[in-house]
Amino acid sequence: MAFSMNDLSDETVFRRLACRPDFIDDAVISSAKLPARVTFKKLQSRIRRPLGQLHSLPLELLHEALPYLDIRSLWSLARTCRRGKIVVEALPMFRDLVKSVGYTFAILRDAKILGMHSLMKLHAVLHSDRCVSCGAYGCFIFLLSAERCCFECQVVNPSLCVISVPVAGDCFGLKKSQLKSLPIMWSIPGAYDLFKSKSRQLSMRLVSLKAAKDLAVKVHGSLDALESKFPLDPETRNVKIAMFETYRKAYSPPIASDPLTCPYWTASGLRNLAPPSAIFGGMGVMPFPCLYKGRIEHGQCCSGCWYLSRTTIQQNNHLWDLLIPAGCLNSAPGYCTAEEYLIKLSCRAWSHVGLVEHGRECPFAATFMSQPGHWDPI
Known about the structure:
By secondary structure, this protein is mainly α. The chain is built from 21 helices and 11 strands. Residues 51-97 form the F-box domain.
């Protein structure tokens, strides 16, 4: 009897196709990179003092006002007295975050950004699922701007990249006093393996590449003025100069094209392992599930795309014409290589509903599921 995807229930399709390759989470901040020490526990009130002027406000008004506070402020409020603890724990938005992404509080703490974003903003991200750059499903958050993004955009879009504070100062001609105006986070020590980067055991201060570049334009007047004041010697083709050139020429607006077809280019035009994200790649991004109709979704990749794209890379057969855009096949300007496209495709994450819909249409999924045994991509 011939295999048909129509014979399978939605849950069966999802269960058989869903996968999450380890290297995807290894390439960004994760709880596994945190040191083994006590993390946030259930709120406790050890200090006995009243809420002050807040004590007389009705609970309904507190529930309207408190979501505008950041996590650090709410944490402090909860530790002032018993009523503060009760009020904070009763906030619907706070309960959603604790239930869905409570483990990320330890990451925000170690990155020293617990006070950067309001409860309302983080809750809005929790209930969103679209990448701010390309509009596809995004299962990560860019910490410095609290924007949801997908795996590929945090690699190819400089707006979702971070650089160290010293590099930002040297590259964009910014003084220490000027750099202090930027949102700053501390890196989480660990190995970020996307571009086989070295393990970084020391924490460093990081800023958004986009924010640093925008500040440079504000300070110097324009990028041309920056080039005049702090020129880069074109004859000096060392790594540092090439990196600065890449950062200065990096585009700031969200990318308009499909990130699956975007090339990994350096500013000098040489195909490489994608600065600006290669140096500090993944150090400003962490997994951030979405809450959809009461269900926590972490985002899953398609096992069919993963397995058969790997097979196709090795075989270079007729499936390339079926799957890969012509621009990638022909190495057209502005397109990545065919091999890169296949790797990117296999790393695209889907929501629960999205994976089921994709799985019923994906020819690779049908071929994969019709085989006697399933290959494990994890």
